[in-house]
Write a structure and sequence with these properties.
Blueprint (H helix, E strand, L loop, with lengths): L1 H8 L25 H11 L4 H8 L3 H14 L5 H11 L5
Helix pairs in contact: 1-5, 2-4, 2-5, 3-4
Length: about 100
């Protein structure tokens, strides 16, 4: 999990040209995720594959892929790594 988070937060240049991401909504305007989308996002952030998530949540892999697509769309993200980074940003800090 730590490797996935480190990669997601790294400043490495992508291998293909990507247009800049649109601005994120402020916390007050953040999109609402369903309970299941939050569960899927948390497992994505832990580095689980769609197949592993499907097994854990007892749903089909296609259902997991649909949830991931919805999360990406709601937050205007382009990758699972960005979901992981977003989850880290939103998690309460333990100092």
């Amino acid at each position: 999990m730590d490797q996935a988070i480190d990669y997601a937060l790294s400043e490495e240049k992508p291998t293909s040209p990507i247009s800049p991401a649109p601005e994120r909504p402020s916390a007050d305007e953040a999109p609402h995720l369903t309970r299941r989308e939050r569960e899927v996002a948390a497992l994505v952030a832990q580095g689980f594959t769609s197949c592993q998530i499907a097994s854990k949540l007892v749903v089909s892999e296609r259902t997991v892929d649909n949830h991931v697509a919805n999360i990406l769309k709601k937050f205007s993200l382009r990758s699972r790594e960005q979901i992981a980074a977003r989850m880290v940003e939103q998690s309460p800090r333990r100092d």
